[in-house]
Amino acid sequence: PKKGQSGLGKSTLVNTLFKSQVSRKSSGWNREEKIPKTVEIKAIGHVIEEGGVKMKLTVIDTPGFGDQINNENCWEPIEKYINEQYEKFLKEEVNIARKKRIPDTRVHCCLYFISPTGHSLRPLDLEFMKHLSKVVNIIPVIAKADTMTLEEKTEFKQRVRKELEVNGIEFYPQKEFDEDLEDKTENDKIRQESMPFAVVGSDKEYQVNGKRVLGRKTPWGIIEVENLNHCEFALLRDFVIRTHLQDLKEVTHNIHYETYRAKRLNDNGGLPPTPATPDSATGLSLQHVAPPRWE
Amino acid sequence: MSKQQPAQFTNPETPGYVGFANLPNQVHRKSVKKGFEFTLMVVGESGLGKSTLINSLFLTDLYPERIIPGAADKIERTVQIEASTVEIEERGVKLRLTVVDTPGYGDAINCRDCFKTIISYIDEQFERYLHDESGLNRRHIIDNRVHCCFYFISPFGHGLKPLDVEFMKAIHNKVNIVPVIAKADTLSLKERERLKKRILDEIEEHGIKIYHLPDAESDEDEDFKEQTRLLKASIPFCVVGSNQLIEAKGKKVRGRLYPWGVVEVENPEHNDFLKLRTMLITHMQDLQEVTQDLHYENFRSERLKRGTRKIEDEEVNKDQILLEKEAELRRMQEMIARMQAQMQMQMQSGEGDSSAVHGHHV
In chain numbering, where does the site feature Important for dimerization fall (chain B) (predicted)? Predict the structure, then answer.
């Protein structure tokens, strides 16, 4: 899923990541599509295919996050949604007659879009990530990075990393889950140098040096999305899809989900929960979880 | 007096020449000697490029010892008002420019009380001017009223945010609002047009009154008229600020260097910086006049009306209080009379029994 205030290019980026129209762009908000008064959770499922490999991708958008005058607790609907998916999985798992492959609607990765102010994180960013890094894998992303020069980008990234560290926020890949030295070395480099990825998204193509590239056209030049000298989109894509996709799922299943399960079992006196037992913390029982729309 | 060619009246030897055609020159000399004052307020979330733009506009560094706070520090911060004054001089003309900054605006998670401080500040300046104007010694009234407010809209959004709308509606009757979109280099030309139109639509939809450039007078030359038309058509201005000199096409220009090209601040094809600067300079006088004739007069009449109404209210209250006090007095007198009557009865009936009188507590 993707979180961040409206207008940070989330939909465009997701489309660029999966090179297909998996995210409906709000095309500058028509008159009818106003900024929603509360945070909404919109989940849309897609099936995409590459090289004979099929993937069911669910993109969860959170319009309204961070857009109000009073944004207190605007992360709560999101935290609730994530926990609802864990609850759903748990109920299936403890069923007497359970399915061979439990449908997995758990959130494997949360892309958090940071506004490229060039100054620091916003208080809302800190609060959100503090609360949610404990329940889901968060990958912070600096949106619309074409507004920063190279020096500004480096400085801003350093500042953001420092702020996250000082505030005890662990983004994915979390240090404590590195499995071996090889993982650690690879992930250390990503954690300390590359992240947060400063990206630019685009679904339009232009001709540059004889090739057709995805990019943004401005009066002073064309920004090439997949050119590592221009932005880090290619790094983000490789990281999320080509190298760490499976790991994202495993950490979700083995760590985040297990944490949730253990807490639920504890709350229920060591017994697995039945459909009647609501979750004490969130008051959830399974009546109102809406499955994602499939397209 | 009939209108004849002005040339006839500039020659002192011409019969009928009185000499007051020289008045504008006299006014000009006096104004130049006195210098000009202008107060510009700058409002917008952190990181929208406000300080860079102000520095670029006035080719100065108004924020030399600036420390940018981290997110954790911003959580508890309230909106501050920071005014810095610089005296700029150009070709003998002195300008005393005050820039009022509002750090903290829009940063908090809950921005409900964001504008109270700002509105209080604006009102305070009006109040002070009103007080000075009504005082005995009116020779050196300092005008610290806010003549213009640059309101920064984020280029990253899809238009106005709820906070933008609420704030502008709260101050549009107190100050001239000029909406500005900074960091415009994040937008392509098409995106810029779309965003401008969207913002103008939303401003109209919510009934927000922004500063309107007056149309050029009919006797101005065509160039000026055309310039005014262009300026009016470009609002809100999409600008890029910078004081760094970059080498581009063989010249040194103020700009921003990216791997994909150089954004030139003073290139009208790249952004509206020059338009914004032109507007500010050619309309400084008008901005002051509108502040004086419209916003200040509104404040003044509201304030004076409120002042007299308060006195009337107090008088009405006094009468009421008096009545209430009289009623209470009467009640107490009645109560005492009742008690006295009771005591009398007791004494009369209990004449033989002295202990009863003693045991009777009133």
Answer: 156
